[in-house]
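Supplementary notes for students who missed Thursday's class. We covered one full example, reproduced here. Read the sequence, then the structure, then the short commentary at the end.
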Amino acid sequence: MSDDLVIDSAERVKSGADWDFDQLRAAYEKVESVAIGELGLEVYPNQVEVITSEQMLDAYSSIGMPLMYRHWSFGKRFARDEALYRHGLRSLAYEIVINSNPCISYIMEENSMAMQTLVMAHAAFGHNHFFKNNHLFLQWTDAGGILDYMEFAKSYIARCEDMYGEAAVERVLDAAHALMNQGVSRYPRKKTLSLQDEEKRAAERREEEQRTYNDLWRTLPGKPSGGGRLTNVAERHRLLGLPEENILYFLEKKAPLLKPWQREILRIVRHVAQYF
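Structure (token representation):
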């Protein structure tokens, strides 16, 4: 079998472990010409980062984001993944790609040139095209704003630690992280009506009741005992927005004792859970 990986009849990419950034750039440009010129993929601008195994482990712990707030669980995840990797019990990914604009692709420096070409095609263009065009990603994620949002989240939580103490912030983060898997929305939430729309709908309901009113109805037997209680339960459910699949969203909006900064931290963790 040839030592070279054929790109087309005119150009070849070396499959050995030795490569340089000029070769990497040439391979990227060739992959780009095929992905965009021939396949017509629509992608975000690419940002390809070559990283070490240590940096890949660090990316694992922070879900690949270049910015992340502080929490002990990230260090715990790093220590676990590093121990497994050092003892040969787990290999590392060839790449990690982030749904952002620009789309960030981390590729391992240990990869061969053939593997670098493959992962750039797979991540920088395959995943990238999917991120930009899949309707679920468009509905639930914001590639153009996620990096700025994570910068805000990091600085906001740091300010909260200065103002309210690290222990108080850690308690909120611990609780929020424990519920991260229940902090993901899978169905579009109904749009909340504005006060003006609510008043308009109430007026229309009153007009309909007046239009269809019949005085004979007051002679009908009363409702069975307990009907009022059922109505009260239904009304409480309506006011609380139940049923609600996203527990973090429910607590953020409805928990009566949370302070504004605690609600914002729940919101940050919820956004991270939803994004990843």
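Commentary. The longest helix spans residues 113-133. Strands lie at 4-6, 12-14, 46-51, 95-98, 103-108. If anything here is unclear, bring it to office hours.
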